[in-house]
Amino acid sequence: MPTQARAHSRGFTLVEALAAFAVASVVMIGIGALVHNVGLAFDRGTGAVGRSERLLLAFERLAEDFAAVRFVQRQTEAGPEAIFTATPPTGDTPATVVFITAGGALAGPSSEEVITLTVEQTDDVSRLIRRRSPWPGPQSRLEELTPQDAVVLLEGTFDAAFAFGRMMPDETLHWSDGWSREFALPRMVRLTLRDRRTGSDFAGDVAFVLRADAPLTCAEPELGPACLSAKNTGKASPDAQMQGTGGANPR
Question: Which of 26, 68, 95, 164 would staple 101 via disulfide (CB 3.0–4.6 Å)?
Answer without folding.
Answer: 68
